[in-house]
Amino acid sequence: MPLGRHGWARRHPANAGPRKPTPGPPPRRAPTQRPPTTHERPTEQTAHQDECLDFRPPRYIVIHVRRDMARPRVTGPSPPQEVVTMPESSVAEPTKLTFDAPVTELHVRIVNGTVNVVGTDEGPARLEVSEIEGPPLRVTEKNGTLTVAYDDLPWKGFLKWLDRKGWRRSAVVSLAVPARSRVEVGVVGAGAMVSGIRGPAAVKGVAGDTTLVALSGPVRADTVTGNVEAQSVTGDLRFASVSGDLTVVDGSGSSVRADSVSGSMIVDLDPDGPTDVRLTSVSGEIAIRLPEPADADVEANTASGAISNAFDDLRIEGQWGTHKLTGRLGAGSGKLRATTVSGSIALLRRPAGEDEPGPRDGSGETAGTTDKKVL
């Protein structure tokens, strides 16, 4: 088709290129809708959306608090209180406990302080803790066995318990139990007294002294450095120690056996019948006193120590080094054996009727003193 003048040029200029689109406002994006979760309620887009409630799950902080109902909170020292015990309780303050269930066996283990056990035929078993410092004592009663001890202080391997951190505790404990009960007492740095028990009794001590009074059942005492004193013990006595001393006063049991490394032994016997006495020490001294008249077959030995004897029927052999004392007193029904390596041995005689008031001579001394022969 013919074009007029400048017709093509008007439509297609020489420098004209493709026309650019006129920029306009960016397209509006549709608002994103988040699907509601199981714990949210769907909301509508309104002009008052900011005023809608927030149904997101709330957040809480929970603090767990353990409370021991057996240990009431106190602000100061309180006097001991009488409490009927449960099968298990924790004692952290002065307390008195009474046990209605029958008790046939007692286990006590404490560190520092004092423990006193008394056998009685009246009333139920009773416990009094008059002083306590450090961790609480665990008190349990199960199947007739009453236990008063720390959780970290077992009876097995007791003499090896030397944890110095655990020594920062103390308790003063007194117990009254049926006299026929079986008693086990363990002390670390604490004193112990056991009296009036007719059942078997066992005491273990690391560094505490022990006193045994009027025990008629078999008795066993093991210590490391603690001393043991037995008064009027009529049951069989067993003693073992490293450096602790043994003192027996008015012993009338049928058997006394003691072993020590460096501890001394003083045994005063007043038996009702034949007695089997066996004493052994490495460097400790041994002294034995027998009643007059005595009934025993005697043999005593020392490697380098001295021997003294107050009985005419016994003879001492050896002039230098080893000394030996042998002989028979009375019918020789009982046995007396004493052995030490470097310690001395003394055999003393108790005159008849010594415990009764006797005539005195002009010097004011009681007549009938004990004579000794020393070698």
From TrEMBL:
Pfam families, A to Z: DUF4097
Superkingdom classification of source: Bacteria
Region (Disordered), start-end ranges: 1-54, 345-375
Domain DUF4097 per the UniProt entry, residue ranges: 207-347
Sequence ranges of Pro residues compositional bias: 20-29
InterPro entries: Toastrack_DUF4097
Basic and acidic residues: bias regions: 37-54, 351-363
Protein's name according to its UniProt entry: DUF4097 domain-containing protein
Native organism: Streptomyces griseoflavus Tu4000
